[in-house]
Amino acid sequence: MDLASKSKASPAESEKSSPIQLAEEGLDISQETDDPSSLGKIPWSYKWLALLCIVSLPIGHTWTGSALGPLKNTLREELGINNAQFGVISSADAFVNTVFPIIGGLILDWWGPNLVTICCTSVILVGSVVAAVGVQINLWRVLVSGHVLMGFGIAFFYHWFGVSGLAFAFGLENAIANTVSLVSGMVAIPIKNGTGWYGWTFWIPVFFCVFSLAVNIAYVCFERFVIPARFRLTPGREKAIAEKHLSKKGKFSWNVLFSLPWAYLMLPATQLLQSGAAGGFSTSSADMIFMKGFSEEVAGYLATAQKILPIVLSPVVGLAIDRYGHRFHYVATAPILWIIACSILGFTDLHPTVALVFSSLAGVINAMPLQICIPLLVADQAKIGTAFGMDVVFGALQDDTDGGGYEKVLLVAIGIKAWAFFLALSYIFVDFRFLGKGMTMTLKQREAREAEIVDRDADPLTKRTSKPWFTIMTFGLLIAIIASAWAVFLSSTNNMASSAKRPNFLIIVADDLGFSDTGPYGSEISTPALDRLAKDGVRMTDFHTAPACSPTRAMLMSGTDNHVAGLGQMAEFMATNAQAFKGHPGYEGYLNFRIAALPEILQDAGYFTAMSGKWHLGLKPEHSPSARGFTKSVALLPGAGNHFNYEPDFDPDLNYPSFMKSEGLWMEDGRVIDRKSELPHDFYSTNYFTNRLLQFLDERTPVEAEQPFFAYLAYTAPHWPLQAPKHIIEKYRGMYSDGPDELRMRRIKQLRSLGLIPEDAIPAPVSGTSPEWKHLSASEQAESARKMEVYAAMVDVMDQNIGRVLDRLEATGELDNTFVVFMSDNGAEGALLEAIPIMRSIGLLEALQNHFDNSMDNLGNANSFFWYGPRWASAATAPSRGFKGFTTEGGIRCPCIVRYPGFQSNGNYQISHDFTTVMDILPTCLELAGVQAPGKTFRGREIAPIRGKSWVSYLSGAKPWVYDANLDVTGWELFGLRGIRRGNFKAVLVPLPRGSGEWELYNVARDPGELKNLAHKKKSILNELLMEWENYFAETGMFEFDIKNRNVRGV
Questions:
Q1: Lowest mean pLDDT among 24-33, 269-278, 470-479, 615-624
Q2: Residue-wise pLDDT tens digits, 813-863
Q3: How crowded is residue 247: how many other Cβ atoms within 10 Å of its Cβ?
Q4: Close Cβ partners of 244 (under 8 Å, ≥ 6 residues apart)
Q5: Any idea which residues carry the catalytic annotation?
Q6: Which residue among 473, 497, 521 closes a domain?
Q7: Is residue 408 located within the same domain as residue 533?
Q8: If both were cysteines, with which of 50, 391, 527, 1032 could 519 make a disulfide (CB 3.0 to 4.6 Å apart)?
Q9: In angstroms, rounded to a whole number, what is the distance separating the alpha carbons of residues 646 and 651?
Q10: For residue 232, is pLDDT > 80?
């Protein structure tokens, strides 16, 4: 039927005509011209602003969407979301866009794009602001809302380019969108790293959207006041009325949806799945590369690079399709390229770039053929399919994969692409059999063929048959897919909230325990509970703390450096130089309020929090455990105390060390307790702390029992004074009679046999000033060995009590849902306190002589007070150099055992040789709990950022490391001793007279004893680390205290 014959149609037929039919029958509803297919009729002097609208419209929306992929890992951590919820964010805009593409196209054509697109652009602007606000306030649902609003606003200005220019216009828009996507993906991580906040990436598109809206308004004014009337776009509704296809103004029927030609509805069967899988691949490709061991920044660069080819080739392919046809052949080619890309990235060791080349080629032609086949269904088809929950399904599949991997996702994606390829082949057949080869022909071939057609309603090329049953079935399929996708999402989130409820946490800290002092690390001391814990968990061999106890505890509670958290130096040391440290942030001597403490965060998240043991993070009630987030607590506030609660009657007029006194230093739930009347008569520290923690758990209220718990069990064993029950000491009689050097060699041999240290590791020489074993008399050897026996007994008792806790949790059914960490707070204590001048000045020797009995037979009893010295400590820290107080490995490399059943099914779960720190425990707990880490403020106060890194991806097998060996740097400083590490290289400075007084460089993976100083051989690496030290010094607000001159001097 030609245009002339249409005027003879009956009123009933005219009334039924729709915009779609008008377009299909050749009626130009967009412009007044004799040849609606001609691109050249409208001068470019009038087209340029419309072209600028096309260029500017997708920028803001595309920028926001493209930043999601590189920031996926960051968003999961910052917003506390899982992969399925990330899928909701990434597909929210497409959901709207694809549910209403036909309706949106009709409205745009029917009433014209001018005011419609202004409204749409305004909605996009509002959506970008809402999305940015969602990031600002760390609420992922607000971010989703912003994307939904942006989805409502997406529209195109293809009307200005006619049918023949449609592919070129789409190709141009696609190129612009991919350019923006490339830039956004490239800069997302650098912006995050450079500014310290990832949210700026989401505020940038707001300004682009303002620009786009301004251009859109300018376009409307330009059209109304500058463009001649004959070139102005006439809305389809007005055109249809003028042509008398509508009998009266304003009539519109939604039944038009069911009069679509059935061939149009091939779109959902192919493009829904094809683009859905492609969108899921594009969104997650950065995360997949990240999981292959690349840094977050490199992964973002590589994933974003797949946009380069579409930028260059999209307009070219668009022109090629316009010129040469064969649309469905392109449709068939795209899934083959996607299958190759998915297979390479997911199941080979080839560099990700190879896979991304294929995905780039697929991206060039993925949606374009169908988009230009069916111009009335244009609506951001790059994301069609994700709207139907494909990103959500992919996220749920990833959540259901061990370690959050992509194996299931990629297998499903490959299956989808295979189905799409099959359908594309069938469409080629349909085109040849039923559509008159219209999708294969070029435009000129089609025009020539149409000119020969006599009966347009009978020829396959022009015949458009509607099949309502097919339409209903297709829309039913779409609704079913939507419902299924969201059912998967709701099911996965419900499972996380019920059957996989939030885990409990049990953090056990030993005090001054050496690296090899337990069975899992090669010790002869009986530790069956820790053996059991290690058998079911992972032993870390490169776990690091601060060089001393309170700085480590500050790092544990804060997830950041001790110089930030308030213990830049030991409080006891700062008390002797109070004026020098006064007023310096980070040197308050207690866990300051510039950080959010782990129990505070978890308490706010609905956790029952309990603590029993040594606090050492503040002596005042406002700094006590109950003030920092513990619902229930009993604590020894200072750093040490008598293990039997014994305290002699000191003369109040004489000066004695504070650590020998306990009055007023015990606190329960914020209340000072009397140790003499409120502690049990059979008190032994390790037993008591265990009893009280179990009591807190047993006496939870019904409401508290429904909550997950965070339990902190901080033993004071085996910190001096070395004291233990007599019958346990006897268990180790004679075991150490050959001295510390022989023990050291036995321990090293056992560490090697267990695979905990390299076979060729050379141990550092013994540190300290005490005489060698062979130079001691027989009685001196016996006394020294007895001290080690007492130490061993303390470790033994601690293990027995750890076993009690594990048994209780197993009996209550809570153990397998509890993340357990056992660690030491620093290296073994090797100091000879009597040799330290400051100790002598505060009456240590007088107190030992007048109030304690350190005779051979009394060693280990309540009224004894001693330590075991540097040689026994060196046996425990071997092969490392030094011990507690040193920034060499012996002072900061500590035992750490982690148990959590959720991590057991991967290769990282037995022995870990990768670098980790005590700062990592806080972010690990938060990620496991699904708790969002605080931003810049917490409980109304500004806080410092977390420096530690979560272990979840590493221990679950999703990542090969915790710290990037090329980028991540960790530093230490205490008492003027310094260390800075990146990868396996560590620079260390130990001042005179304990060290060389110069920076030294070691490869601690090959040389754990720090024997081979590489400072002169690898000067460039040392210089890089010294620059990193300056950065670390500045970031943590550190200052150097010159003890000799009693002044403050910056580095």
A1: 24-33
A2: 999 999 999 999 999 999 876 555 556 556 677 888 888 999 999 999 999
A3: 11
A4: 7, 14
A5: 549, 616
A6: 497
A7: no
A8: 527
A9: 16
A10: no
817 assigned to some structural domain: yes
Count the residues in the chain: 1051
Range of the domain at 595: 504-919
Mean per-residue pLDDT of the chain: 76
Asked if residues 217 and 118 have their Cβ atoms less than 8 Å apart, the reply is yes
Q: 387 and 275, same structural domain?
A: yes
Question: pTM value?
Answer: 0.61
Please state, in angstroms and rounded to a whole number, the distance separating the CA atoms of residues 935 and 828: 36
In tens, the pLDDT along 252-261 reads 455 555 555 5
pLDDT given for residue 733 in this prediction:
97
Of 39 and 1019, the one with more pLDDT: 1019
970 belongs to a structural domain: no
Q: Does 783 have pLDDT greater than 50?
A: yes
Whether 107 contacts 118, CB under 8 Å? no
Q: Please, which pLDDT band fits residue 667 given cuts at 50, 70 and 90? A: very high
Q: Measured between alpha carbons, how far is residue 464 from residues 1, 12, 436, 473 in Å?
A: 12, 19, 11, 18
User: Do residues 927 and 549 make contact, with C-beta atoms less than 8 angstroms apart?
Assistant: no
Q: How many domains does the chain have?
A: 2
For tokens 């037993």, the residue is 687
**Whole-angstrom distance, CA of residue 224 vs CA of residue 888:** 76
Q: Please work out, in degrees rounded to the nearest 5, the angle formed at the alpha carbon of residue 323 by the alpha carbons of 320 and 325.
A: 80
**Amino acid (1-letter code) at residue 3:** L
pLDDT at 907: 42
For 295-311, give the DSSP string: -HHHHHHHHHHTTHHHH
Dist CA 570 CA 549 (whole Å) = 8
Q: What angle do CA 142, 143, 148 make, to 5 degrees?
A: 95
Q: What is the pLDDT of residue 765?
A: 82
Contacts for 811-815: CB closer than 8 Å, 24+ residues apart: 814/504
602 and 658 in a common domain: yes
Counts of helices then strands in the chain (DSSP H, E): 42, 19
Q: Give the per-residue SS3 of 83-134.
A: HHHHHHHHHHHHHHHHHCHHHHHHHHHHHCHHHHHHHHHHHHHHHHHHHHHH
**Euclidean distance between CA atoms 720 and 829, whole angstroms:** 8
- Provide the b/e sequence for 844-879 (b: ≥16 CB within 10 Å): beebbeebbebeeeebbbbbbbbbbbbbbbbbbbbb
CA dist 249 to 10, 17, 116, 229, 238, Å?
A: 18, 14, 19, 22, 8
* 266, two tokens: 């091939």
Handedness of CA 8, 11, 16, 19 (dihedral sign): positive
